[in-house]
Protein: UDP-galactopyranose mutase
Organism: Aquirufa echingensis
Amino acid sequence: QKPYDFLIVGAGFFGSICARELTNQGYSCLVVEKRDHIGGNCYTEKRDDIHLHVYGAHIFHTSNEKVWTWINQYAKFNHYTNRPIANYKGELFALPFNMWTFNQLWNVNTPAEAQQIIAEQGKDIQGEPQNLEEQAIKLVGKDIYEKLIKGYTAKQWMKDPKELPKEIIKRLPVRFTFDTNYFNDRYQGIPEGGYTQIFEKLLEGIEVRLGVDYLADKSTFNAMANKVIYTGPIDSYFNYQHGELEYKTTRFDHVKHDYPNHQGVAVMNYTEEEIPYTRIIEHKHFEFNETPSTWISYEYPEPYKADVTEPYYPVNDQVNNDLFQKYRSLANQEEQVFFGGRLGEYKYYDMHQIIDRALTMVNTFTKKSMNDSTTTG
Ligand code: FDA
């Protein structure tokens, strides 16, 4: 008899939701987490009365009623609406591209005038665009491409946009209205008191071991539970036997200033290539906080190196998706181990999508678990 029904690897949304739901259904769970805190990439830390998003800005948005009702059991959301600003060589523009942006760029006031300029500037791209640069110019014209896309994309991908596949920006959010709300979702906001308290509530009464790398001692941990839910990178689980999956990663430099307001907005994108960071986040504006000091974070894209840098964004291009399928086949052969979450499924999921997946998938884990709970790992 093993001491736990489920071993859950990772205390992000996927792992924590599984732990909560399974515990509620009477299963015993042990959660192990590599980092020294719970919350995964949604973790926030209180610094000088400001909730700092340690792994990058996390703005909750969803149109999914089920998810919205579910998350509201664990947090009260404020009315934050994401309205980022682009800074190109000191000139400020509204994002996503909307009538304010066109007015700032070209001094036009009507959608028809803006559409005409975009069409005029995109007409040089004859036939099928061959790369990201051509695709972008075709969609939004030269000015927007040069000022707001080119440098930012080059920094983000660490490549010339001419060398990037056009598929990356098949669609660009362009609005011919004066709506500066970044998201189209019905619900949006930041949890009052930060994200970490959501995870504290989710994991209340559940055994969590922090600072524990499951992969460093896999067989010992496997011997402790009938089933494993693994939310780490799928390629690392299989010891990279088919090669490494690619991720984009970012370094976050958190800096405190002893004055109350640095940039007057939560998210400012720096779109020129010469400035090495892509964004500055000023955390207090997520929560309408009026503290005397402020915390800001610079975001620097960095090359990814497995087991050295953090795997933040899966790169879901053809090569990586094909490689993922090989790992998926291996995963299907693991009868006692379930793979879930952004890293386990190698898919860029937002928080609301992960919550939906965890709430749905956890029931399949229990069904399977009850059928073959006598088998060992
Ligand atoms: P997550 O990565 O959160 O958790 C996995 C956990 O497993 C980690 O804590 C990790 O340490 C642990 N782990 C891995 N390997 C392990 C091992 N071997 N042993 C033990 N533990 C191990 N979404 C959104 O809706 N709005 C937003 O604004 C943003 N912004 C955003 C910014 C940045 C920079 C990123 C990277 C992501 C976002 N997201 C987002 C997405 C959001 O972070 C994501 O949907 C959830 O964190 C996914 O939750 P998971 O539980 O799948 O992974």
